[in-house]
Every structure is written in structure tokens, then in C-alpha cells.
Design brief:
mainly alpha; 7 helices
Length: 153
């Protein structure tokens, strides 16, 4: 077992405990935010596992998850707009935590990988995770839903 696998295990436990609690309890808004945060945690764990096991293909899985995770959140926000109501879930806190954790994982993975296409892919995954979390957070907030309803009629 190496340091990458220890970090992956720690992130998995520390990240998924609040995700499972958020998805299993509380209002629908908190459940959607927890689902989005869960995709971020799993994506970062995949990056750490890619380094720990020396399998660059795990980075491809993280890339796909970084794209599809926030898209799934946007679909939930659209389909559950009535249930979400006017109460804004605490999406901003989860977004800040996701971005704060994403930066060191991506930077450490880039340093370990060295310059090249693999490092560019890692940076793309990090940017997609950050941007996806910000977009999902804005969509889930009451302001984002209000502006969306105003533009759609």
C-alpha cells in the first residue's frame, strides 16, 4: 500500500460518509447537493487510484465522471424544480469543499505524472470538476432557479 492508496481510502471514507448521510436524510435539495458532491469525491478517488495502481485508464473514468456528474445534477434540478421550491440548499459549502480538495489532488497527480498529455488530462479533469460544481451550485440555489424560470417563460 502506498501513499496514493492511503489518501484515496481516507478521501473515500471522509467524503462518502457525509454524502450517504445527505442522500439518506433531509429535504430533496440536500439530497441533490449530496449526489453532486458524491460524484466529485468518487472522481477524485479515481485520480488517486490511477496514481496508486499506476493505471492511467482510471483517469479516463474520472474524466467521464467529471463531465456526467454535474450534468446529472442539472437534470435532477430541472426535473425536481417544483419539489426544490424556493428553499435553497446549502450547495455553496459543498462546492467550496469540493474545489479546495480538488486542487491539491490534481496538482499532486500532475507533479507525479510529469509534463505531457496525461498532465493536461488531469488539469482538464480538475477544471471540469470545479466548473461543474460551480454551475450545479448556482443552478441549485434559489437565484439560479429563479433566473432559469424567468428565461423559460
Amino acid at each position: 500500500m502506498n501513499v496514493w492508496l492511503v489518501c484515496a481510502s481516507a478521501l473515500l471514507v471522509a467524503g462518502l460518509v457525509p454524502v450517504v448521510w445527505g442522500v439518506a436524510t433531509g429535504p430533496i435539495g440536500r439530497r441533490v447537493v449530496a449526489q453532486n458532491f458524491g460524484t466529485s469525491v468518487v472522481c477524485l478517488v479515481m485520480l488517486l487510484l490511477a496514481q496508486g495502481y499506476g493505471r492511467p485508464s482510471y483517469t479516463d473514468l474520472a474524466l467521464v465522471l467529471a463531465v456526467l456528474g454535474p450534468v446529472g445534477t442539472l437534470v435532477y434540478a430541472r426535473l425536481l424544480a417544483d419539489e426544490l421550491g424556493e428553499t435553497a440548499p446549502l450547495a455553496r459549502a459543498a462546492t467550496v469543499v469540493a474545489i479546495v480538495v480538488t486542487a491539491p489532488v490534481v496538482i499532486a497527480s500532475c507533479v507525479a505524472t510529469g509534463p505531457g498529455r496525461a498532465a493536461v488530462k488531469l488539469v482538464v479533469v480538475g477544471v471540469l470538476l470545479g466548473a461543474g460544481n460551480v454551475i450545479a451550485s448556482r443552478t441549485l440555489s434559489a437565484d439560479g432557479r429563479a433566473s432559469s424560470r424567468a428565461s423559460h417563460g
